[in-house]
Amino acid sequence: MTTGKTTYNRRSFLKASLLSGGGLMLSVSWLSSVKAADKMEALNLPEQWAQLNGYIHITPDNVIKLICPNPEFGQNVMTALPMMVAEELDADWKNVVVDMGPHDNTKLGPQFTGGSNSIRMYWKPLREAGAAARQMLREAAAQSWSVPVEEVITKAGVLSHSSGKSAKYGEMASKAATLTVPKGMKLKASKDFSIVRKSQKNVEGKKIVTGKPLFGLDYRADGMLIAMIQHPPAFGMKLKSFDASQTLKMSGITDVFNLKLYEDNFEQGGFDTRTFNDLLVVVGKSTWEVMNARKKLLAQWEPAGDTKDTMSGRGGKREVTVPGGLESTSAQLEKMQEQAKKPAQQLRKDGDPETAFKNAAQIIERTYNAPFLAHNCMEPMNFFAHVTDEKALLVGPLQAPGWVEPTLSKLLNLPADKIEMQMTRMGGGFGRRAYGHYLSEAALISKKAKAPIKLIYTREDDMTYGIYRPMYTATYRAALDANKNLIGFHVKGGGIPEHAIHANRFPAGAVENYLAEGWEIPSNITIGAFRAPRSNFNAAAEQSFLDEVAEAMGKDPIEFRLELLKRARENPVGKNNEYDPDRYAGVLTLVRDKSGWNKADVATPGKETYHRGVAAYFCHNSYAAHVVDMVTRDGQPYVERVFSAIDCGIVVNPDAAKNMVQGAVVDGIGNAFYGALTHKNGAPEQSNFHNYRIIRHNEAPKQIDVHFVENDIDPTGLGEPPFPPVFGAVANALYKTTGKRQYNQPFKPELDKRI
Amino acid sequence: MLWVLRDHLDLPGTKYGCGIAQCGACKVHLNGVAVPSCQLPISAVGKQAITTIEGLSVNGDHPVQKAWLEHDVAQCGYCQAGQIMTAVALLKENPKPSDADIDSAMSGNICRCGTYLRIREAIKSVAKK
């Protein structure tokens, strides 16, 4: 995807040293002709491909190229999705190469990476594409050999017939490409899989470990300039005026201008969220020059006041008022406490919760809070754009090309077929790159600068100019009768600017008298999807609360959940329960058995005492449960070991799936302990990794055992589901370790206060 | 050094992550020692040898690179060049690192995807050989 050649010459080296102040000897040792011996190059790819459908290309030399439709951000779809095609194609995986497809919803489907949906969304269509191509190859062989097509069999990329005839796929590919694409192919039974369900290595692994230019920030084009945006210092502010005279004097700077991202009354779709609308832009020749020149800008900012956004899409066209003002975390917390006392919107009600609570012998009530979170993708936001009057080329990291295309079309006044989008590998996403405003910014900057540009956010830009996980709170109440039976359950959740309540999820359906309510406080701080939106807070609060309720009832926390799930299965309360109680119970029993939950000797091996916490959750159609084993190390609680049980149906690529669960566990522990983005007078108080703490090597568990429930259910999500329950399991293990319950995220500052 | 490598020498394997030596994505070897290139002024380099991920091996077959592939370490992959450069420097200085040694050498490198466990396993597998 990169057009630049990896070359080095004396001239570019001298130029570099001149830029740095000149005259210095710099000896750089490098390998001047690095040749990656990766699969692509080793196979010596020819020019001609026979295209059997949007996903499958085969050469006469028998190289099979499979196109990955969905953007890759580390969930390993570039390996897993082609595996599904190759399975039905009966390809030899060793001869398969994979390319990321360009944006083309007609040929490649929805192309959306998010909602843990890639595998689920493409499970049927990609296998059908593979099966159809296999059938076309069989048909081509049958015609060539004058034998009935039913008698042509396939194995590992070879067609054969009992008469002794055989041919590699490549030999029949050109002929097959002329045949009609069959429909309604019968797909393999899962017991016959030979590629799916077998661990296959990351198809881009070699490129990653050799530093190949895979990412958006690595992309370059001839004549490309670098652009950066200076944004207001605080949410609730806007640009008043600026003086760029000093900046323009700096070396390499070609342009400074301001522009408006969306004109008044621009109809925003659901993923057109942007942090600031008035952009102050610096354009220049190199990153370092632009970064330094931007510091010389003299900009004046003023309060933005209340503003209006015109929204379209789901919910129809409407005007939304974004409140002005400079918000601070402390004031936001107070505001949430006040709002929590007021009546809220009823989201679900079963039975008679008011009476249940009135008659209760004991009521347990707890409130949980969590801050805004920044995504902090390792690769900051960036995008390449080259926009002319006739067409636009955009290249970079994004999750949802189909969502931003109509926006670009409107902003650039170009028809969609004149907008070409290519997706690079993403250095993380976590939901952040579903919001395409940075593409729109890059496109408008390129148009105005009349040049190909790459817009780069610095780490500080990325963190302080974010589309954050909202700030949440929830109060849970449980009513117990005199025999310590759970007779009522009530959750009232709120947030800035949205609440996190999933009213139809467990324990809804398992408690006779149930009430869920939600409220919201508007804000000018921009928010959006963050790995398992809403669930990532719910699972922390609800799973901590259930642990406390189980304790009050004198029950084992796993047995207590299993009893509730038994009720939900045998005699469910209410309607629209979203989860399957059997599968939910399945991950709990699996994690109980694999962790040796009830065996004291497993819980206390050797000298250190493991304090255990458990939590489970359902989201994105999958089920996850964790047992967290905590020790005290150097006076600090530390998660040393984790057992995870997951039910996501058929696991396409088991070792990569395990990697994803392990990563979700580490991410969950990190955000539970440290994650927080706070504000003072509208300004984010964290700006880089020195004051926004991310979990590191020494804080990650030494062992994470991942177990999948084995079944033949069509695959469901995996990127998000393991993440939310980690928070609850950590909170419950902290209680066992410290004797204190955790109600406020992140946990670390409160733990430090006690020491 | 980071931006000279990336923008002028067209060696983009060295990554920008934070610009303040907090994440390790930009680590290169200066005389065999892993250092964050974002903090390395060109003027400080003199005649010293710099090695980037592109220069670690001819065919991507350095034992640490091979171990990374064997353990299928990467998720998004963005931080991995920095992790590998740090691990190579660690193993050179300390061929049999303990868990504590690995913690101490590697904790300057953030992996937002959380592949720490596999990084540890990959380092240990090289140490065993």
TrEMBL record, chain A:
Domain spans labelled Aldehyde oxidase/xanthine dehydrogenase a/b hammerhead: 210-305
InterPro entries: Ald_Oxase/Xan_DH_a/b (IPR000674), AldOxase/xan_DH_MoCoBD1 (IPR008274), AldOxase/xan_DH_MoCoBD2 (IPR046867), AldOxase/xan_DH_Mopterin-bd_sf (IPR037165), N-heterocyclic_Hydroxylase (IPR052516), OxRdtase_Mopterin-bd_su_IorB (IPR012368), TAT_signal (IPR006311)
A Gene Ontology molecular function term of the record: oxidoreductase activity
SUPFAM superfamilies: Molybdenum cofactor-binding domain (SSF56003)
SMART domains attached to this UniProt entry: Ald_Xan_dh_C
Coiled coil stretches, renumbered: none
Region spans: Disordered: 304-354
Biased composition (Basic and acidic residues): 305-320, 335-352
Protein name listed in UniProt: Isoquinoline 1-oxidoreductase, beta subunit
From TrEMBL, chain B:
GO molecular function: 2 iron, 2 sulfur cluster binding; metal ion binding; oxidoreductase activity
Protein name in the entry: Isoquinoline 1-oxidoreductase, alpha subunit
PANTHER family given in the database record: BLR6218 PROTEIN, OXIDOREDUCTASE WITH IRON-SULFUR SUBUNIT
Domain 2Fe-2S ferredoxin-type: residue ranges: 1-56
Domain of life assignment: Bacteria
Keywords for this protein: 2Fe-2S, Iron, Iron-sulfur, Metal-binding, Oxidoreductase
Pfam family membership, one: Fer2
Taxonomic lineage from the root: Bacteria, Pseudomonadati, Bacteroidota, Cytophagia, Cytophagales
InterPro entries (UniProt xref): 2Fe-2S-bd, 2Fe-2S-bd_dom_sf, 2Fe-2S_ferredoxin-like_sf, 2Fe-2S_ferredoxin-type, 2Fe2S_fd_BS, Beta-grasp_dom_sf, Diverse_Oxidoreductases
